[in-house]
């Protein structure tokens, strides 16, 4: 045994050797925790996802029914104004034109015959060979056949128009968003077979919670790191019955930047939402803790942590808006809240 050990240490070693037990280890020091100050702010930041849409999106449909014979466009393809998109089988439409032409020819022949009869009756009536009643009857037949000819002419024009409707053309330049019509499919008049997004203005479609009024302005964050101001264009007249959300569309204010908004792309949209009252507080997102007992934050009371229940008002990428029994200036734990237990001793390190 070394000679320089203190007598007390020697006695302790001898005691442990006799009893066979080691002295209890000293308790570990409380861990360090990072705390932040709770701040009050009159506005809450809200970030939602939005989908880029065209200002005008037109469902494309045939004006007549029939069987689709060919399709000349695919989804995602850009089309010019007047480009052929679909064609119907024209055989039935051609036969309708032929039937209308035959009806017009018959009506024209009947009119010529009636006019000849009327002329002959006029000559005979002038010579008192027929009565005035016979002449009136002949003139009435002329009027009837002329009306029949007018109706046949109108039906022929309609049949020719319908034959022209067998080719479905793009009414304006744009991008084909979706295609539902396929060759061989029988469609009715007015049944949409494609959707075209017109060139020009772009909008961002956002869905808001049922209990929230869409803000009048917002800001879209672009993939290149830039931002684009948005202004509310329209809001649906009723909430969606399934998702219970309100559909709103925001137009891009800077027309020069709309090229950065690709159709169908998803962008992040930030809004500044007025706080409901002065008790709304701002805390770091990492300060929220939820382990099946509702959201809460942790504060230090006499060197130990205690949970405080909160109501979450809004979230964004870095902070959360909450309501809680905390006053502005209170300090809460900012990180590692999932490791804390009520009454756990900690040491504070302020940020």
In brief, what are we looking at here?
This protein is an alpha+beta fold and 351 residues long.
Describe this structure in words.
There is one protein chain. By secondary structure, this protein is of the alpha+beta class. It folds into three domains: 28-55 and 200-351, Beta Barrel (Elongation Factor Tu (Ef-tu), domain 3); 57-89 and 166-197, Beta Barrel (OB fold (Dihydrolipoamide Acetyltransferase, E2P)), CATH 2.40.50.100; 91-164, Helix Hairpins (Orthogonal Bundle). The protein contains three helices and 22 strands. It has helices at 7-19, 91-126, 132-164; strands at residues 32-37, 39-40, 43-54, 57-61, 66-71, 78-79, 84-88, 167-169, 174-179, 186-187, 192-198, 202-209, 217-221, 227-235, 245-252, 266-274, 280-284, 296-301, 304-315, 319-324, 331-333, 347-350. It has a six-stranded antiparallel beta barrel. Strands 2-17-20-19-18 form a five-stranded antiparallel beta sheet, with no helix packed on it. A hairpin with a 2-residue loop joins strand 18 and strand 19. Helix 2 (91-126) packs antiparallel against helix 3. The longest helix has 36 residues, at 91-126. The radius of gyration is 42 Å and the shape is rod-shaped. The chain starts with 6 loop residues before the first helix and ends with a strand. The relative contact order is 0.20. The model is unreliable at 1-5 (pLDDT under 50).
């Amino acid at each position: 045994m070394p000679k320089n050990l203190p007598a007390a240490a020697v006695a302790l070693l001898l005691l442990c050797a006799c009893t066979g037990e080691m002295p209890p280890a000293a308790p570990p020091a409380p861990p360090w925790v990072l705390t932040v100050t709770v701040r009050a702010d009159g506005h809450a930041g809200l970030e939602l996802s939005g989908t880029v849409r065209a200002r005008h999106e037109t469902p494309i449909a045939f004006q007549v029914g029939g069987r689709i014979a060919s399709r000349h466009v695919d989804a995602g393809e850009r089309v010019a104004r007047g480009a052929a998109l679909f064609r119907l089988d024209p055989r039935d439409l051609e036969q309708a034109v032929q039937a209308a032409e035959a009806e017009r020819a018959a009506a024209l022949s009947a009119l010529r015959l009636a006019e000849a009869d009327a002329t002959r009756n006029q000559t005979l009536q002038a010579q008192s060979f027929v009565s005035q009643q016979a002449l009136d009857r002949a003139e009435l037949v002329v009027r009837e056949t002329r009306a029949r000819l007018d109706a046949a002419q109108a039906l022929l024009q309609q049949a020719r128009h319908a034959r022209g409707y067998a080719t479905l053309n793009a009414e304006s330049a744009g991008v084909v968003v979706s295609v539902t019509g396929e060759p061989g499919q029988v469609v009715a008049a007015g049944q949409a077979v494609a959707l075209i997004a017109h060139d020009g203005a772009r909008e961002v479609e956002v869905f808001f919670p049922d209990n929230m009024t869409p803000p009048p302005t917002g800001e879209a964050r672009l993939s290149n790191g830039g931002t684009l101001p948005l202004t509310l264009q329209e809001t649906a007249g009723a909430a969606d019955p399934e998702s219970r959300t309100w559909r709103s569309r925001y137009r891009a204010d800077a027309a020069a930047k709309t090229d950065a908004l690709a159709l169908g792309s998803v962008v992040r949209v930030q809004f500044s939402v007025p706080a409901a009252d002065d008790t709304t507080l701002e805390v770091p997102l990492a300060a929220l803790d939820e382990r099946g007992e509702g959201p809460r934050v942790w504060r230090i009371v006499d060197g130990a942590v205690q949970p405080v229940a909160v109501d979450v008002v809004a979230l964004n990428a870095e902070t959360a808006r909450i309501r809680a029994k905390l006053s502005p200036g209170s300090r809460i734990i900012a990180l590692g809240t999932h490791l804390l237990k009520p009454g756990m001793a900690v040491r504070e390190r302020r940020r």
